[in-house]
Design brief:
Layout (H helix, E strand, L loop, with lengths): L1 E6 L4 E8 L4 E8 L11 H23 L8 E5 L5 H18 L3 E4 L1 H12 L6 E6 L4 E8 L2 E7 L5 H11 L7 H8 L24 H12 L14 H33 L5 E5 L6 H13 L3 E3 L10 H12 L33
Parallel strand pairs: 1-4, 4-5, 6-9, 9-10
Antiparallel strand pairs: 1-2, 2-3, 6-7, 7-8
Helix pairs in contact: 1-2, 3-9, 4-6, 4-7, 5-7, 6-7, 7-8
The structure holds 5'-O-[(R)-(carboxyoxy)(hydroxy)phosphoryl]adenosine and zinc ion.
Length: 358
């Protein structure tokens, strides 16, 4: 079984071909550089760039794979949630290929792409506990099966990656900022500033990063003569300390709420063995190390996708498409791309597109 996957929901234009032996037959990815000057992704620029690059990305992907388009058994695309202009480009391309090749179309929830990515290179079986941390989402879920999720908690404001990006922007580290913050934090003192841990005491698995971001802003303001962070002049040593303190605090918030979730998971899913992290922030080695420790302490096996499959990519979409397709879940050609699409509304047998059993 061979599935092509297309990703275009944010600022990566990507495609990949995988088979059911977990082999990646081909892949191509372009991270759009056009957004750097704006300090964030500009939706219209992203949509136009996807349109410009998608054909070329598909050509590169097939050239590397050495298989023909007609060898593919199904065509999957990230069909939401995401920036709708880009999502439409990927979905329309996949539908066009589906018609031309007479092969089924599989609408993949982008979050399901992240959620299942750890299963490509690890022996992770259902059910498992998942921390999904990306630029747009921050959720703790039980992955019960393909298309079956129980959401235990979510951020009530900013996503974790968004907080990394905003802190990086305040410190003048460019966009996206997660990697830069992680790198500088390596040489910083994580005990120098005490930052707030919002929602940490609430008896649930919800998270909040907005107050933490504001606390960093207040520190940055003290380095500016006029209180405007655009004019802040922060010594390199202090930038590193701020990065380390932010990363420590954000990670601690995630780990504490995960501890609660682990308790629930072990009580309600005693057969579950894995703690999994995925999404762009899962590329953070500091976070991965803390999660490994948390899993060890609780008798769970920690698993994460290889770092390059944490941030958006075509392989995770192709793989999620394959997991859906082999269960018989395909989507009609009138499937409407969804700017919003909660993962726990992704039930495979639900009426309507995205959950249709073939
Ligand atoms: O999953 P992703 O590529 O896109 C979304 O679906 O949102 O995640 C991108 C996010 C960005 O906010 C980026 O700053 C963050 O992941 N990120 C990181 C690291 N690498 C990427 N955050 C912290 N540490 C990293 N090493
Ligand atoms: Zn993503």
């Amino acid at each position: 079984m061979i599935v092509l996957g297309i990703e275009s929901s944010c600022d990566e234009t990507a495609a990949a071909i995988v088979n059911d032996k977990k082999e990646i037959l081909g892949e191509a990815l372009l991270s759009q550089a056009e957004h750097k000057a704006f300090g964030g992704v500009v939706p219209e620029i992203a949509a136009r760039a996807h349109l410009e690059h998608i054909d070329n990305i598909l050509e590169q992907c097939f050239a590397k794979s050495k298989i023909k388009m007609s060898d593919v058994d199904a065509i999957a695309a990230s069909s939401g949630p995401g920036l709708i202009g880009g999502v439409i480009v990927g979905v329309m391309t996949a539908k066009a290929l589906s018609i031309a090749l007479n092969k089924p179309f599989v609408a993949v929830n982008h979050l399901e792409g992240h959620a299942l990515a750890a299963r490509i290179s690890n022996d992770v079986r259902f059910p498992y506990l998942l921390l999904l941390v990306s630029g747009g989402h921050c959720q703790i879920l039980v992955v019960k099966d393909v298309g079956e999720y129980e959401r235990l908690g979510t951020t009530i404001d900013d996503a974790a990656g968004e907080a990394f990006d905003k802190v990086a922007k305040m410190l003048g580290l460019g966009y996206p900022g997660g990697v830069a913050v992680e790198k500088l934090a390596l040489s910083g003192d994580e005990t120098r500033f005490t930052l707030p841990k919002p929602l940490i005491g609430t008896p649930d698995c919800n998270l909040s990063f907005s107050g933490l971001k504001t606390a960093v802003r207040k520190i940055v303001e003290t380095y500016s003569p006029d209180g405007d962070i655009a004019h802040a002049d922060i010594p390199a040593r202090d930038v590193a300390d701020i990065c380390a303190c932010f990363q420590y605090t954000a990670t601690d918030c995630l780990c504490r709420k995960l501890s609660r979730a682990i308790k629930y998971f072990k009580e309600n899913y005693p057969e579950g063995k894995n703690l999994v992290v995925s999404g762009g922030v899962a590329a953070n080695t500091y976070l991965r190390t803390k999660l490994q420790k948390l899993a060890d302490e609780n008798g769970l096996i920690f698993a994460a996708p290889p770092i390059r499959f944490c941030t958006d990519n075509g392989v995770m979409v192709a793989w999620a498409g394959l997991e859906r397709f082999r269960k018989g879940y395909t989507s009609p050609l009138d499937f409407k791309p969804r700017p919003r699409w909660p993962l726990d509304a992704n039930a495979p047998k639900a009426a309507g597109a995205g959950g249709v059993k073939a």
